[in-house]
Design a protein that fits this description.
The protein has 299 residues and is mostly helical. The protein has a single domain, classed as ABC transporter involved in vitamin B12 uptake, BtuC. The protein is 72% helix and 3% strand. Strands 1-2 form a two-stranded antiparallel sheet. A hairpin with a 3-residue loop joins strand 1 and strand 2. Helix 2 runs antiparallel to helix 11, helix 3 runs parallel beside helix 5 and helix 10 crosses helix 11. The protein is globular and about 60 Å long. 44% of the residues are buried.
Length: 299
């Protein structure tokens, strides 16, 4: 009976909500990775490094403006834009010449860039832990489900998830750029043949995908210690989410993030010592049942 009660207790509901908060970050980062994979066919290994840089930029901007509410909102805007500018330089300077190369070469190339970024972050920000304060407006708790206390900032994250998902849906399905990107993902040669500059289409998609990585880093910064290495586990989780959701499928990324985030939270609740294993077991089960992913792949 105690086991059954644990599934309807406030602790269970709280853990589910925490898992959903984690899901939002995973989805935002994985959706950018999925977008790049779906259109450009690039397995961007340094996507996690951009997430880390977004968190460090958020720290710098927040500190520069006093660490208050103004600093937080400016960081939430400025960090993703800074990451987007970095990605634009990389895409125009390097990637536009490598789109036709083999995937193995692209993996090795992007992995090398991730190593360079790791050293650059250490050079610029040092090896010490950084912390971004939760803004005053999001400090404290809100009452959910008849009295369950839940952090206001996590509630803000739960709000951001649907906003980003809806914005991506509008971008991909309702804008000219989105429709051109979908066409380029299927037949880039034909898109180029009708007079569209495919190179700049790829650049735009790449920058948007990387901006999402920076946004994920800026959003997670007030909830974790901003430090070197925070990109390592995130990029592995991001690729797993993209794979189980369906390569290049944005809604698949959302579904994969939900599976990953919720199974991790439930695992911690059920078996804390091995909670981290649960999402990977879920990935194995999904791939055994649906080797191509839960939703249709764009590859």
């Amino acid at each position: 009976m105690d086991f059954i009660y644990s599934f309807i207790s406030p602790g269970f509901l709280s853990q589910i909500l925490v898992g959903l908060s984690r899901t939002v970050i995973l989805f935002i980062v994985a959706s950018g990775l999925s977008l790049i994979l779906g259109v450009l066919r690039i397995p961007n290994v340094f996507h996690g490094s951009l997430y880390m840089i977004g968190a460090f930029m958020s720290y710098t901007i927040s500190v520069a403006f006093g660490g208050g509410d103004t600093g937080f909102w400016l960081a939430l805007i400025g960090a993703p834009i800074g990451v987007a500018l970095i990605s634009l330089v990389i895409e125009r300077g390097l990637f536009q010449y490598l789109y036709e190369r083999e995937h193995l070469m692209l993996i090795l190339f992007t992995f090398a860039i991730s190593l360079v970024f790791g050293d650059l972050v250490k050079l610029v920000w040092g090896a010490e832990y950084k912390s971004v304060p939760v803004p005053q407006v999001f400090q404290g708790f809100v009452s959910l489900f008849g009295g369950l206390p839940f952090p206001k900032y996590n509630t803000f994250l739960l709000f951001m998830g649907p906003v980003v998902a809806f914005a991506l849906w509008l971008l991909v399905t309702k804008t000219k750029m989105g429709k051109i990107s979908q066409a380029a993902a299927v037949d880039r040669e034909m898109v180029g043949a009708v007079g569209i500059n495919v190179s700049w289409v790829f650049a735009t998609v790449f920058v948007i995908g990387c901006l999402l990585a920076g946004l994920g880093g800026a959003l997670v910064a007030p909830t974790v210690s901003v430090t070197l290495g925070m990109d390592h586990s995130l990029i592995m989780e991001g690729f797993l989410i993209v794979i189980i959701g369906g390569l290049g499928n944005i809604w698949g990324a959302l579904l994969g993030a939900l599976i990953f985030g919720l199974t991790q939270s439930l695992g911690i609740l059920i078996w804390p010592q091995f909670g981290i294993v649960f999402p990977y077991c879920a990935v194995i089960v999904v791939l055994l049942i649906r080797p191509t992913g839960l939703l249709k792949s764009t590859w």
